[in-house]
Amino acid sequence: MWNLVKKTFDFGDFILRKVTTVLAAVLLVYSAYVLYDTLHTNNQALEDLNLLQYKPVLEEGSQQTFADLMAMNEDIVGWITFPDTKVDYPLVQGQDNLEYANKDVFGNYSLTGSLYLSSMADRDFRSGFSVIFGHFMDNGAMFGDLHRYKEPEYFRAHQDGYIITPTQIVRLHVFAVLETDAYDTRIYNEAAACEDPGKLEAFIRESAIQSDGEIDLYSGQVIAMSTCSSAVTNGRTVVFAKVTREALPTDSEDLDQVIQEKSGKADEAEEDESVPEIRVRQNTEGKWAILNLVCALLCVYCCVPPGCLKARYGCSGIIRKANAAHGTDLYRQKPTACRILAGTLIQVLTAATAVLLFLKTEDIHAHMIICDAWTRWMILLLWVSSITGCFLCRYSVKQNAGTKGKGND
Q: Is residue 360 packed enough to be buried (19+ CB in 10 Å), middle (13-18) or exposed (0-12)?
């Protein structure tokens, strides 16, 4: 009877080991792919920062002009910059509003896309209201920094930017930021917004998360900068800016310095030490870490067949051999029983803690990142679970059994 039970158990353990091995392999491969895809996409967005070498300047002796940008791609209409942010890119305009969602400024396929002006807007930025689109990136690239305009300090410190075109400097002054969805016709129907700016103005006054009180769409042109938001399905974060124009400087001056001096920001940047440092923030609301999920799943794996149970059943083999050799019953010895029970309880509690910690701190419906402030604790829990299974359920039992033989793994 015992042999039949043992064979049945061994067969079940064999099936479980094979199934869980396959599932673990699939999980690891998929996790590796997700990590690679995320890193590749984020790195691709950071590589776009090399475009700064093409930024038009008017320094004496400089060979880089706006004509060089136009030679790369005739769809380039300007260069948009907000000082002290990562918004510093060429601006393109396609045949429709999807053309450059997955194409870089050279026209090549790219998941990060480009910053692009609405196809309905005037490429000289003379429309009464127009929209600029760009992807949200966790590392702040593209329009990733637009989310930070919801923070009061960041909003006040980064209100001024500009767009360089072949003939003018289009100065931008941010006056409001809000969240909406991708189907909001009050914003994305630009023709209607130009015909009836009062409707959009009322919506901004009612919904603005941050504003400077200067919400007046009748007194001039307005540009809206739109990017994805994790707050709702198809959510969008939209930053609104007023437009003023200046002719390009005629003398040989650095264009960035000209813009800063005209906006009064050159001296202010040196005196105001309260401006927050630009950095990639981790563990913020609206993000979750893939490494935390992997650690939680591995903690659970350690306390189910063939995880720690396989080690404990191996211990059973050691104990049976010791019983046969010495005529004793080590199961009845308190040290052995306590160690096996302690190992089991620690692994189960560790797995439960890891799962609860993940559920409390992470939201898998939000943007995924590699790690956050909780990752170190998840790794610690996984380490505790692994060491417990190896040490308490194997090594300590071997020592207590007084044998160097191997168990029946």
A: exposed
Residue 155 and residue 174: Cα distance in Å, rounded? Answer: 8
H-assigned helices in 51-93: 66-72
Q: Identify the H or E element spanning 80.
A: strand 76-81
**Using one digit for the tens of pLDDT, what is the confidence trace for 384-393?**
887 776 566 5
d(CA 207, CA 225): 16
Each residue of 259-268: pLDDT tens digit?
Answer: 555 444 444 4
- Please list, residue by residue across 240-253, b when 16 or more beta carbons sit within 10 angstroms of its beta carbon and e when fewer do: bbbbebeeeeeeee
Q: What is the largest CA-CA distance in the chain?
A: 101
CA dist 204 and 176 (Å) reads 7
Q: Is the pTM of this model over 0.70?
A: no
- Work out the percent of the chain whose per-residue pLDDT is above 90: 18
HSE-CB at 354 with a 13 A cutoff on CA atoms is 30
Residue with tokens 């042109």: 221
pLDDT of residue 188: 92
Roughly what angle, to the nearest 10 degrees, separates helices 2-47 and 308-326? 150
Tokens describing residue 228: 């994805």
pLDDT single digits (tens) 144-174: 899 999 999 999 999 999 998 888 889 999 9
Cα–Cα–Cα angle for 362, 367, 370, nearest 5°? 70
- The Cα 370–Cα 244 span in angstroms is 41
Quick one: which of 192, 190, 220, 201 has its CA closest to 93? 190
Give residues with Cβ within 8 angstroms of 345, minimum separation 6. Answer: none
- Per residue in 120-140, pLDDT (tens digit) is 999 888 888 999 999 888 777
The C-alpha atoms of residue 168 and residue 350 are separated, in whole angstroms, by 63
Looking up tokens 């679970």 gives 385
Helices (H), 126-224: 152-157, 185-188, 190-195, 197-207
Find, among 392, 300, 380, 298, the residue nearest to 343 by Cα. Answer: 392
Show the tokens assigned to 309.
Answer: 């149970």
